Amino acid sequence: xxxxxxxxxxxxxxxxxxxxxxxxxxxxxxxxxxxxxxxxxxxxxxxxxxxxxxxxxxxxxxxxxxxxxxxxxxxxxxxxxxxxxxxxxxxxxxxxxxxxxxxxxxxxxxxxxxxxxxxxxxxxxxxxxxxxxxxxxxxxxxxxxxxxxxxxxxxxxxxxxxxxxxxxxxxxxxxxxxxxxxxxxxxxxxxxxxxxxxxxxxxxxxxxxxxxxxxxxxxxxxxxxxxxxxxxxxxxxxxxxxxxxxxxxxxxxxxxxxxxxxxxxxxxxxxxxxxxxxxxxxxxxx
Length: 286
Fold this sequence. Notes:
- By secondary structure, this protein is of the alpha/beta class.
- About 50% of the residues lie in helices and about 10% in strands.
- It is built from twelve helices and six strands.
- The protein has a six-stranded mixed β-sheet, with helices on both faces.
- The chain is elongated.
């Protein structure tokens, strides 16, 4: 599926809640308004379609919403949902699914990530990103876009240093830190970056040792993107070689949250993980 912006999803959830609170069905609203079909209403509530301010005002009037603060907030969401993000200037090199991920990261307040094979993109150096992007390119089209894709990956990292920085908690398999990069000094610089990132208050990194017993993370890597005050909007992102999957069902998202807690318990504590990274970095200095 293609995931809309969080603002659109939040607006859709609010509109759906207002309709449900009044005991109205989609058919009821379509009949009362005269301006909407059930299909159009459904697309607005599920954020498949960007809402227009006039349509939102019509619905708020129909639902009898007199709270000026709520009306202002929902109309602000309507306008913000149509805004362009910086990544849209890279549309010629990004897949729609990748655009979705960047959009979600830009809106998220937290990310909880398990990575079995790579240093996560939000923590990568430029040279490491280049090696990984080149190594995982499975088409000539991707190979031709490596420079632009590396630019995008580094630009994504701005979420870590914005005014209200992303709260990032990452668990990385130790084997990912032992990757033998082809470029001289690439892994040394990457480990040095991880070492420095462990000192930031909004970033926690844990290492899952190579000799750990069987664990739930062996089923694959994933990220949980969280949105403050709106747990119902949390999304799980699961990426494979040829596709990405977004999971929004609350019950399924809870399963991934529980799995992440198991992985946190199995991994080295944060301070021990920082020491392990420092030790590994030092071995690359000789």
